[in-house]
Amino acid sequence: MTFSISLTVNGERRNVALDDPRATLLDLLRERLGLPGTKKGCDRGQCGACTVLVNGRRVNSCLALALSLDGAEVVTIEGLAQGDELHPVQAAFIAHDGFQCGFCTPGQIMSAVGLIDEGQAGDDPERVREGMSGNICRCGAYRGITGAVLEAQKLLAERDRRNAA
Amino acid sequence: MKIFDYVRPATVPEAVAAAVEPGSSYLAAGTNLLDLMKGGAMRPDRLVDVTRLPGLDRLERLADGGMRIGALVRNADLAHSADFARAYPAVAEALLSGASAQLRNVATVGGNLMQRTRCSYFYDVASACNRREPGAGCDALQGENRLHAVLGWSKHCIATHPSDFCVPLVALDVVVEIEGKNGRREIALEELHRLPGDTSERESALETGDLIVALRLPGNASSFAAHARYLKLRERTSFAFAVVSAAAALDLDGGVIRSARLALGGVAAKPWRARAAEEALAGENADVKAFRKAAEAALADARPSGDNAFKIELAKRIVVRALALAAAGTPERLPALPASPFSSVPRALQHA
Question: In this complex, which of B39, B101, B237 lies closest to A115 when CB atoms are compared?
Fold first, then answer.
């Protein structure tokens, strides 16, 4: 049996025919839509490498059944930059050395974008660390990651203020 | 993962009719179900996707002052609802101490109640597990069992229920609304999860096709709002299940306890309401002496099921601390690490 679903991925409407109902959103992005930036780490919801935004919220794409997300709006790491201009969270990760090997980085960045949008952590490093605890970094770049999130949050708030003015 | 059929019903009665078929399993966010299916511990023939069912994602204030929570309300939305968190702070704290932000963003109220044990022998299909395969035996009995049950266990199964959310809920007398093939009924949350006995595969009071549609907090549950905490000991700072946890709620008249609610997590196959401890606290001064007496009453029937005798003493200490924190008053804002007895800042004491 074939199932047809339609998703908006990074602003683009994508229609997909699924001949296997077992596909997760992660599999769909990587294997069918040519978007390998989202990483498969544990594939069990424990490491956060597969984090993407679904309808504006950060989620583990490895535990989301693609069929169930018919109609959803998805943003992946490939959808953050505007042309050659990095998203402020991406730029802040570079400025703060928020990574070493880079495998967890797309998930870290998407999770940070979600965290900043949720607005619960404020400028408290302890709340940022807790808010990012769903993303494991085996290189141990946590200090840089926390610094990057705090700075990006400040930059985004300033940008919002400028845009509002 | 075994192949399955997928159906997405449009109404609750259609969902129940679909799920009555043998081999069916409800799918909400899927954060536990897909994990179990990937490992082969669950092998449903058909998934009944309930995520589009209308009317189940609402939070409603009730005429008696209580609140009704639709089964599809997401954990993060519930915890961050200002109205909800003000009335039931220990529930919000428990929610925010569970899983990760990504999981809380999708995980549902109904799914949280129905999540399966994290016993590693249940997950590992090469191990014997009565819960997964009735009559197979229990490899946890002679295995790595330091995190297993100390209350209500049997030789058939020593697994624990992993939910944080359910612990304060059971203390607050929550009612579960269920739609089944014979229509709507309701039961106390305390009656939903079953102790293993010699039928550990029967984990809940639900029948085939039953769908949890909502939870109801009774009107008096918010009378504990000023003195309610959830405290959870984990093996790492964040994103881990409870070794032991406790929800404590006090209704105080000056320094005297008018009434108390207490429940424990991580100790049994169900969220464990400690009624004997509540009775011991009523009418007492809210002090450490009373809290210690209550902790002894709460764990009076506890027995180690393996290398976990330490959990009994640990649970008593967590109970005393949770009661002491509740007596001190619900904080204006939840701490940076909700429910944690520790701080992530080196050498800083969270509750010093």
Answer: B101
